[in-house]
Amino acid sequence: MAAGPQPTPTANTSTYAGFGIPLILPAWVIIGFFLVVPVCMMLIYSFLTKEFRGGVIWEFSLAAYDQFFFDRGLFGDEPPKIEWTYITIFWRSIWQAALATLFCLIIGFPTAWFIATRTGRNRSIWLFLITIPYWVNLLIRTISMKFLIRDNGPMNELLLSTGLISEPIHIINTNLAVQLGLFYSYLPFMVLPIYAAVERYNFALSEAAADLYASRTVTLTQIILPAVKPGIIAGCILVFVPSLGAFLAPDLLGGAKNFMIGSLIEEQFKGAAGNWPFGAAASMILLSMVLVVLTLYARQQTREQG
Amino acid sequence: MPENDNIAVDIQNVTKMYGSFTALKDVNLDIRDNEFFTLLGPSGCGKTTLLRSIAGFEDITKGAIVLYGQNIANLLPNQRPVNTVFQQYALFPHMNVTQNVMFGLLRLGQDKTTAKARVGEVLELVQLTAFADRMPSQLSGGQQQRVALARALAPSPKVLLLDEPLSALDLKLRQAVRLELQQIQQQTGITFVFVTHDQEEALTMSDRIAVIEGGHVQQVGTAREIYEAPKNKFVADFIGETNLLDVNVTDLAGGKGSCILPGGAQITCPAADGAHAGPGHLSVRPERIAITTAGEGLVQGNASRHIYLGTDVHVEVTLTDGEKVTVRMQNSTQIQIPEVGQSVGLDFEADAARLLVD
Question: Does the domain formed by B7-228 have CATH 3.40.50.300?
Fold first, then answer.
């Protein structure tokens, strides 16, 4: 048949245009109410005065931010010095989250590649296996890990019995334990977006690169990685951001010395020792850091595509 | 047409198995230096597998692939001095035209200045100089195809492999690019190995054609040879259109055979090597048959259908024994096309017919 070019249906074809607003309205209401409002509340709380048994007094105050950044002595009458306690906790959190992201990437990329290069049914099975641990509550899984890596837990017993080590390895309550916890909790968030990117990857590009005399390493770094970069970046964001605010793994596996932001914030809202404005301020500082990173990334993306 | 006996690619007893499926069965081919050589066959015949085996993307199960005297069958793709134009172009999406074309040159260790100059040359050859800074996504299909060609030509490969490079283009463009490809092949003197399922493409462009079916090479020859002297039923049927008449072969001698046509007439005509006595097939091209009045000619029948093709009309004639024969007639006022239902006789010269191997 010699038909002329068919009009391609687009989003602004009149037949469909009218449906957009009513369909998206419930989502906007829910997101607006349950996402934006709580964040605004936190922002407001961070500028209020603390009430000693938890809660706030509706009186404007910068005390929470002041407490975060400055040390004015026990009675608050000394000249302000920089308060390192919380900055150190933040720095440790960033460092831990970055490391967790790196490890997830190192382990997650080959895993995602493996799954994406399986055929049909096998691929679905592997994907399914990756998600199985998520059917168990994260708290339970973290406690199980604590049990597993204790000084006299199964991991050490196994290693001792094989004779590989003569003394139990002390992991629990160290940074390494926190790292393990974060890695374990967020690995699938790295695997799944990379899997999606690799699945879309056109393997003819690898052949073309080999045809043009590229070694395997060059093909990986110059052709494959740029092609799956969006998946890698999505995976890194999905691991880094929740790792930064995580409190279960640092609380249960890290002990008191390996405090992270998440635990610091959690503590402010729990029990009599709490300080709501301070917790809110810490949250806001964390949020603004994440926003800065994401904005920089988004700007770089638009520049690349520009 | 190059008159050159140097062998560029010598394919020796190549067999390729996928599990228990045999994709290539003991293939032997000599592809000459400077030649535009086409691997032609229906989809799934093994032609692409053969091309990919030369490129190194498939490991062959048995045999040797000798490129200018060197067996390359065990080399990795990046060690073989051949380049490929891929069916879907496979341009690197994150690199612009220049970077795509330069990729192979840099891998070969050329410095940037030399490579840049060479990129300029090949882009001029494919008339894409103005598009050097574009990204592949900003190019039309035809332009992407040229970039793919430029990228494969840039390292000056000894042999250029083309995997159905025109199949994604529309008809008009395809015809224009055919001519250009031929010109580029003649200008550069590079041996082209071209894979296609399109017989017209093969006939118009190639110095020689290998017709492949079921993992076997059926026939190798120039376009004229395989069209006018097909070896077997498959080649006769696949290349162009033909009528295959059921005949009884009575006598074979000196490249000629005698046979009895449906209806009883007897002719002596050229026979393919390997044709044998007994029931066989006689191939006659539709354009070589003339329609005469009923009772005259070699076979008799009734015009049963007209197929209108613009410049030509195909008249389908049902023979008395039920066989259908297609006759190609020019659509012209001077030529009388028989009405449907009219009794006609069909005539052809003995030399226009050919006895085939089944």
Answer: yes
